[in-house]
Automatic annotation (TrEMBL):
<dbReference type="Pfam" id="PF08292">
    <property type="entry name" value="RNA_pol_Rbc25"/>
</dbReference>
<protein>
    <submittedName>
        <fullName>DNA-directed RNA polymerase III complex subunit Rpc25</fullName>
    </submittedName>
</protein>
<dbReference type="InterPro" id="IPR045113">
    <property type="entry name" value="Rpb7-like"/>
</dbReference>
<dbReference type="InterPro" id="IPR005576">
    <property type="entry name" value="Rpb7-like_N"/>
</dbReference>
<dbReference type="InterPro" id="IPR012340">
    <property type="entry name" value="NA-bd_OB-fold"/>
</dbReference>
<dbReference type="GO" id="GO:0005666">
    <property type="term" value="C:RNA polymerase III complex"/>
</dbReference>
<dbReference type="Pfam" id="PF03876">
    <property type="entry name" value="SHS2_Rpb7-N"/>
</dbReference>
<keyword id="KW-0539">Nucleus</keyword>
<dbReference type="InterPro" id="IPR013238">
    <property type="entry name" value="RNA_pol_III_Rbc25"/>
</dbReference>
<feature type="domain" description="RNA polymerase III subunit Rpc25">
    <location>
        <begin position="54"/>
        <end position="195"/>
    </location>
</feature>
<keyword id="KW-0804">Transcription</keyword>
<feature type="domain" description="RNA polymerase Rpb7-like N-terminal">
    <location>
        <begin position="9"/>
        <end position="35"/>
    </location>
</feature>
<dbReference type="GO" id="GO:0006384">
    <property type="term" value="P:transcription initiation at RNA polymerase III promoter"/>
</dbReference>
<comment type="similarity">
    <text>Belongs to the eukaryotic RPB7/RPC8 RNA polymerase subunit family.</text>
</comment>
<dbReference type="InterPro" id="IPR036898">
    <property type="entry name" value="RNA_pol_Rpb7-like_N_sf"/>
</dbReference>
<keyword id="KW-0240">DNA-directed RNA polymerase</keyword>
Length: 204
């Protein structure tokens, strides 16, 4: 395999990790003016693009009230949005972390998890290993657009009407060429430590 000097995103293809093999290569041709040899090459790439509902494991790299960000080492743009967390849950601004109530003590805690006691909360702390399922992915063309002031007459400025997590908003999850949206609202998903002591149920 040939490791790429810089990992790149191919639009609607995925994150290119490395060259798997070279299938064909033409004879070198010298381009007029620089004396360098140029080749036409047909090759196969190793590409990262997980499919919907695929289960992966990563590490929580950061949290905000808008999302939880996950890193897999070679790829850092995996996000869990609030509606894709197990319920009931809430963001603790003091701890700067999301938490889940596995067994709420009362209906009031279900309605407002922040009323719960700290010992009831199962926090998703930065650095924890997390198991998640792929919900969706999307690509964004990062080519520069028109300069400021070149918009159409009557067009709304980019910063007006943005919602958290949308393109152009503060803390946007769309500032990269490729991002993945994940969920942990399912059996066996979430922090790996949550399920470490769970018994395996035999399938008949």
């Amino acid at each position: 395999m040939f490791v790429l000097s810089e990992i790149e995103v191919l639009q609607d293809v995925g994150l290119c990790i490395c060259v798997h093999d070279v299938l064909e290569a033409s004879e070198g041709r010298v381009r007029w003016g620089d004396g360098c040899l140029y080749y036409t090459v047909l090759f196969r790439l190793v590409v990262f693009r997980p499919f919907t509902n695929e289960v992966l494991v990563g590490r929580i790299s950061s949290s905000s009230s808008d999302s939880i960000r996950i890193s897999m080492g070679f790829f850092d743009d995996i996000f869990i949005l609030p509606h894709l967390l197990p319920s009931p849950c809430a963001f603790d601004y003091q701890e700067q972390a999301w938490f889940w109530l596995l067994d709420p003590a009362s209906d009031a805690h279900v309605a407002d998890p922040l009323l719960s006691a700290p010992e009831e909360r199962m926090y998703l702390d930065v650095g924890e290993i997390i198991r998640f399922a792929i919900e969706s992915d999307d690509f964004h063309d990062l080519e520069p657009g028109p300069a400021v002031g070149e918009g159409k007459l009557g067009e709304m400025p980019n910063h007006v009407g943005n919602i958290p997590g949308s393109s152009g908003s503060k803390g946007s999850t769309t500032s990269s060429a490729y991002r993945v949206i994940a969920t942990i609202a399912g059996q066996g998903l979430g922090l790996v430590s949550w399920w470490a002591g769970a018994e395996q149920v035999p399938i008949e």
